Amino acid sequence: MLSRIAESLFWIGRYLERADDTARILDIYLQQVLEDAAVEQMACRAMFDVMGRLIPEDDSEVGVSQVLQLLAYDRKAPSSITGALVAARLNARSARDSVSSEMWEALNLTFLDLNEQRRRAERVGAHRFFQWVRERSSLASGVADSTMSRDEGWLFFDLGRNIERVDMTARLITTRAAGGSSGPSWTTLLRACGANEAYLRTYRGRVADRTAAEFLLLDRLFPRSMFFALSRAEECISLLDRSAQGRVGTEDAARRYLGRARTGLEFRGVEEMLSDLPGHLESIQSACAVATSALGTRYFPHAVIEWVGKGA
Amino acid sequence: MAPSVDPRATVNAGETSATYGPEVADLFSEYAFGRAWDEMFVSSGVTRPAYDAVITAVQSLDADELRSRADGLARAFLDRGVTFDVGGVERPFPLDVIPRIIESAEWDLVSRGVAQRVKALEAFLADVYTDRRVVADGVVPQRVLITSKYFERQAYGIRPANGVRIHVAGIDLIRDEQGKFRVLEDNVRIPSGVSYVLENRRATMQALPELFAEVRARTVSDYPTRLLQALRKAAPAGVSDPTVVLLTPGSFNAAYFEHTLLARTMGVELVEGRDLVCSNNTVRMRTTSGEQRVDVIYRRVDDAFLDPVHFRPNSVLGCPGLLTAARAGNVTIANAVGNGVADDKLLYTYVPDLVRYYLNEEPLIDNVDTFRLEQPDHLAEVIDRLDELVLKPVDGSGGKGIVIGPQADKAELATLREQVMADPRGWIAQQVVHLSTVPTVIGDRIAPRHVDLRPFAVNDGDDVWVLPGGLTRVALPEGSLVVNSSMGGGSKDTMVLDKPRRYGLLGYGDAVEGPEEAEETATVPPTHVSMRSPDPGPATQQSQQQQQ
Question: Is the complex ipTM more than 0.85?
Answer without folding.
Answer: no
